Amino acid sequence: xxxxxxxxxxxxxxxxxxxxxxxxxxxHSSEISWMADCASRTLTWLSPAAERQFGxxxxxxxxxxxxxxxxxxxxxxxYAKGDLSxxxxxxxxxxxxxxxxxxxxxxxxxxxxxxxxxxxxVVGVVRDLTARRExxxxxxxxxxxxxxxxxxxxxxxxxxxxxxxxxxxxxxEGTRKRYRKIQTAVDRMLAMLDEYLSPERMASIGRARQxxxxxxxxxxxxxxxxxxxxxxxxxxxxxxxxxxxxxxxxGMRLCLEILLDNAIKYTNDEIPIELVGRIATExxxxxxxxxHGAGIAAAELPHVFEKAYxxxxxxxxxxxxxxxxxxxxxxxxxxxxxxxxxxxxxGMEFRIWLPVVTNAGKSLAPADASSDNSLDAS
Length: 378
Prior knowledge:
By secondary structure, the protein is α+β, with helices and mostly antiparallel strands.
């Protein structure tokens, strides 16, 4: 009997400890947790976050309850008729703040059943979508700025090259080949603006992104091959990379091109550039773009990825200050990070870190530079 009582006391203490932990989590969560009675259609519990974010307590939450429990009655009726999809719902709407303004939110709720399978309680959480909506608006504005900053000069180049091709029949084959190369590059950049950096695509950042698979070694080799048209000394070194990784190939290719372009623009023609791909010490993979130039002033390093920022070394170098900002936006979408530092000997090192995400059945063995899923370099 003594042992049984000791076990009961221990179980009670554990239960009380768990309750304290759960209450601590709920009290300090940014999500609003709530509970309502299905029979009376009234709120029975509301977490402290409701007062912090909306100005309501349980006693003053009538306006909030109206939004939370909207359509509860028809939902229960559909569930009673066998529509099991009504048990858990996720919806976006607006809820009124106590000061009168409407707040965009996401409401996730679940019906809790009794022993007979009848819904008796509905529990849920409310997430404020204000920051997400503001980010989406910023991304749309960014896409519009890209169109203004890049599309107009690209269209000018496009028209000029077309005129040169039409009027340059007497030019030698090498010159005409350069015209075609310029035209191909312009077409590709315009397609990138249309397909990857359109306002619609930018607005989808942070939401669903269609996964794709790519060989990371091939990704690096392709980026290096394109950079060698402007800087012959671009080397690639890979070590232990997985054979496949999931990412947006067009986006990551653009990100690497931006970093390589930055290295080329801010170093002399004879300075080599290194592109390195390997497994990161903290897991995932890392891509490094290194040069051996003058580097960046230490005070400016924290700002290099800010929108429209140009450092003191940018005087006389064409640019809009959007490239590194764009690179960071692309890496952010993939759940990774991009950073810059001055290396100890000399020059700059840009580092992209990405989590390795693979599909079931795909090999994680180290890969060489060949792949059946190679990128089109054109």
